[in-house]
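A quick aside before the break. I want you to see a complete sequence-to-structure record at least once, exactly as it would be stored in a machine-readable document. Don't worry about memorizing anything.
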Amino acid sequence: YNNILQQYPVLTKAATSGTVYAIGDVIAQSTEGKEMGELDRGRVTRSRLAGLIAHGPLSHVWYIVSEDFFDNVVHMTAWWSVFPKIFVDQTVWGPLWTTIYLFLTGLLQREQLGSIG
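That is the input. The structure line, written in tokens, reads:
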């Protein structure tokens, strides 16, 4: 995995994210009481696509930009810099990604733009 990750970081992260999103949706639906035969396969596919085409590649870029900002712009490299990094991640990337996910899965479900969300 690490060799492939070094050679093809974006593709590897995209494939990993797509797989995890699909598994996560299967688990989510099973906690809603659905058996394997009752799963909404379209929903699983939409989640997989969101991870594959959006979350993996965008997270790759986000964390490169974030690390560069903290290391080279504000020069936060001490052990405690993990706390402001988490804060920025949770207050900037988290809401942004949630918005992108809802928008993308709405589009994949062919919802009208005004009704997505």
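Two observations worth writing down. The CA atoms of residues 20 and 51 lie 8 Å apart. The longest helix spans residues 41-73. We'll return to this after the break.
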